[in-house]
Design brief:
By secondary structure, the chain is of the alpha/beta class. The chain has helices spanning 29-40, 53-65, 82-91, 104-117, 139-157, 171-184, 200-216, 232-249, 272-283, 301-304, 337-355, and strands spanning 4-6, 9-11, 17-21, 45-49, 74-77, 94-97, 121-126, 162-167, 190-192, 222-224, 258-261, 291-295, 310-314, 318-323, 326-332. The chain has an 8-stranded parallel beta barrel with strand order 3-4-5-6-7-8-9-10, surrounded by 4 helices. Strands 11-12-13-14-15 form a 5-stranded mixed sheet, with helices on one face. It has a two-stranded antiparallel ribbon with strand order 1-2. β5 (74-77), α3 and β6 form a beta-alpha-beta unit. The two termini are 29 Å apart. It binds iron/sulfur cluster (SF4). Residues 262-265, 267-268, 295-297, 299-301 line the site of iron/sulfur cluster (SF4).
């Protein structure tokens, strides 16, 4: 597998990298705040549309402000503007284009410039923008043909790092296109996603099945869960959970933090929902595996979550804290108990990751 370095983050190193989109114009002051927030919350790579010279200028200024490096590696998403595509190579860590929107002449110049600057390219192919000559074919085959042709065209011009994506809003087409592409081009890293995946519930179902089934087959070096109606950080949480689930399904150890939370029936003696949400939020900034359990009662709590690295279980008038199935602390249930549980979780998580050399 070829490795692609995007602003210091390596795509193709064996752990899928999770991407999101900023979802706010670059010239909007909120853009800058979002990049900083993403950096604090474990986003691997982010992307946004670069449409105008003002956008490029703003990126240049921000990059200079942050001493030449974005807080999170930044991918410029280019529609069809040649000048903006070229300018973006200077400022972004990677540039995403659909080569079908550009001439062969421009593509050659673009590839050479990317190679000169050492910037990777994402070749993005969607069913909505296939070359006319492939339109009569099954869409998954047409996407593979187009992506393979673009990749070869680029590689003939310059020694540049390339990631390929083949996306459709149709699950079968997406999964098949990526599977066939991997068989034909096993060395090329794939950015996997289901495009226009919809609102939260629809996207989570589509992305879990689409991205998850590819990851379970070992396909997908970087992913993005596209959600129309959620904060961009939700795309990261969803992406990590999909990777973890796909890895578990294929018999591998999870690679991101995991929260095991019981459904909190009437036996729960503290607010499981609130604690589980707080724990999930705390874990967002860490990219390493750890399993934290939040269980409502002793009936199932300790036994069902005994393999978790750390956890809570309700008890008889108390809350039990355990580590790998061993009870390490107990405290009585009282008013404001959630604050205490959240505080203990924070201490454990900080000490767990500092012991494992993660800051
Ligand atoms: S662990 Fe206890 S509180 Fe949670 S769902 Fe199971 S029985 Fe109910």
């Amino acid at each position: 597998m070829l490795k692609v370095n995007v602003g210091g983050v390596l795509i193709g190193d064996g752990v899928p990298k999770i991407q999101n989109m900023c979802k706010v114009p670059i010239t909007n002051p909120e853009f800058e705040k979002r990049l900083e927030k993403f950096a604090e919350n474990g986003v691997d790579i982010t992307r946004e549309a670069v449409e105008t010279e003002d956008d490029v200028d703003k990126l240049k200024k921000l990059r200079a402000k942050w001493k030449g490096k974005f807080p999170v590696p930044f991918v410029a998403d280019i529609q069809a503007n040649e000048k903006i595509a070229m300018m973006s190579l200077e400022v972004a860590d990677k540039v995403r284009i659909n080569p079908g929107n550009f001439s062969r002449r421009f593509l050659a110049e673009f590839a050479k410039e990317a190679a000169r600057l050492g910037k990777p390219i994402r070749v993005g192919v969607n069913t909505g923008s296939l070359p006319a000559k492939y339109r009569g074919m099954p869409p998954e085959l047409a996407m593979v043909k187009a992506a393979g042709e673009y990749w070869e065209r680029i590689k003939d011009c310059a020694d540049v790092s390339v990631v390929v994506s083949l996306k459709s809003s149709n699950l079968r087409v997406t999964v098949e296109a990526n599977r066939i592409f991997r068989v034909n081009f096993p060395e090329i890293p794939l950015h996997v996603g289901v495009t226009e995946a919809g609102t939260v519930r629809q996207s989570l179902v589509n992305s879990s099945l689409g991205i998850g089934s590819l990851l379970a087959q070992g396909i997908g070096e970087t992913i993005r869960v596209s959600i129309a109606t959620a904060d961009p950080l939700e795309e990261i949480v969803a992406g990590r959970y999909i990777v973890n689930a796909a890895y578990e399904l294929s018999g591998k150890r999870v690679v991101f933090p995991k929260v095991i939370a019981c459904p909190a029936c009437s036996r729960a003696n503290y607010n499981v929902e609130r604690v589980a949400i707080a724990v999930e939020k705390m874990l967002l900034k860490y990219n390493q595996p750890v399993e934290v359990a939040v269980m409502g009662c002793f009936v199932n709590g300790l036994l069902e979550a005994k393999d978790a690295d750390f956890g809570f279980s309700g008890g008889r008038g108390e809350i039990i804290v355990f580590q790998k199935g061993e009870v390490v602390e107990r405290f009585p249930v009282a008013d404001e108990i959630e604050e205490k549980v959240v505080e203990i979780a924070k201490e454990f998580i900080t000490s767990y990751f500092s012991k494992n050399n993660v800051s």
